[in-house]
User: Fold these one by one.
Assistant:
Number 1:
Amino acid sequence: MRRIPSDFLRRFRRHFPGPIILCGALESRAAESWLGSGLVDLAAFGVPFIANPDLPERMRRGWTLAQPKTDLFYGGGAAGYSDYPRFEGPA
Ligand SMILES: Cc1cc2nc3c(=O)[nH]c(=O)nc-3n(C[C@H](O)[C@H](O)[C@H](O)COP(=O)(O)O)c2cc1C
């Protein structure tokens, strides 16, 4: 997976006056690190939210993240989009 170079973001930040939202293959530790660097204002999650409707709570508590069923993406129906359960809690 290609990552955005921090040098690019540093230069982008110098020229772009608005808020910067970073998205793409992030996990919580990487998101915290980017936010802490001050190079981005917000970290966004796409696919992880599909498989984890309770994503913020799972991340906060360090619970396992469910993996998305990517073969169901772009299928035209609700299956694989809105039928993932919330985390039941640690065993
Ligand atoms: C099933 C699916 C549908 C998506 N639909 C859109 C869309 O309609 N418009 C858009 O800008 N991005 C869309 N995206 C891209 C996401 O917004 C996001 O940029 C991408 O998933 C990378 O972030 P992530 O690694 O956190 O998922 C879609 C991604 C997926 C997996």
Number 2:
Amino acid sequence: MWGLIKRFFHRNRLMHRLPKMRGRVAKDEPMAKKTWFGVGGAAEIYVEPADAADLSHLIKTLPDEPLTVLGAGSNVLILDGGIPGITVHLGKPFSYVRVKGNKLTCGAGATLREVAKTAEKHKITGLEFLSGIPGSVGGAVRMNAGAFKQSLSDRMVALTAMTGNGDISEIDPKEMNIFEYRKCYLPDDWIFLEVVLEGKRVRDASVIRDKMAEYKKKRESTQPQGVRTAGSTFKNPDGLMAWKLIDKAKLRGTRVGGAVVSDKHANFLINDKGATADDIEMLGEKIREKVHREQGVKLEWEVKKLGVRK
Ligand SMILES: Cc1cc2nc3c(=O)[nH]c(=O)nc-3n(C[C@H](O)[C@H](O)[C@H](O)COP(=O)(O)OP(=O)(O)OC[C@H]3O[C@@H](n4cnc5c(N)ncnc54)[C@H](O)[C@@H]3O)c2cc1C
């Protein structure tokens, strides 16, 4: 009860300290529907900035307030106690893909599907692997998303970010060693605004379409479809496959509350019966414990946990 009262006062104080913004601001915004897992509590303050200047103004006015970024919510587990402080989502104003030659300038809010489709339309090959990853560009930079032995960083020739001080930073990713498998070394409080991706022009878009169709087929044959999941739960440890380790531990079908390990892909956790974030987290920890005990490998969460427990 005391916790609730404290949070109520904190939220109201924070609301009063917020600068006047041109974008959307809401308090106690439910987050579950904004994520693929469909679980988790509310964001104390939720902001969709109108543009980069609006976001910068927010950061500069409240430099010490914790700030969380949510993309398309396809790789996060928002915990049941919700997200304290400010949650930022880069929405429509950041959702663009512009083409010049063989390069695509993509706003952080654009979906990877839009990027791949635009590349196809302009006969640019090399970005087909993005078509089946259900995230936004900003989330994909943070995760260095990838598939079929390719990663976003392989195609990235420029990156624009907002630093934790609210300043714009232009980065040449080829000059700096900032990415590795599912990891970006830029500071956690940086917000990615835009990337430039480079592909190769081809004469005939059918090669691109064929590649996308092949990737789609592979995904459909190995991954559960139309379910509440965040994709691969754990990173592949060096030289190993997480799903094989989980399989060897005979954990397919294992359940905690409303959360279950997929029968089709052992590294996918599914919310199939009204799971809480707690159910999903406990199921993940159960897997980590058994795999470590039996096979001596420590699995690392690929899914990002945001917010606090209840
Ligand atoms: C069915 C399914 C299949 C998937 N397949 C793949 C796959 O093949 N390969 C793969 O790599 N991933 C896969 N994923 C995971 C996910 O789609 C990717 O990690 C994706 O890049 C996450 O993007 P997002 O916008 O959803 O980010 P979110 O899930 O919203 O956020 C992920 C992280 O990025 C941060 N973030 C989001 N936006 C920004 C920003 N603008 N600036 C800074 N930080 C930001 C968040 O704070 C969080 O830490 C899959 C997920 C699902 C559900």
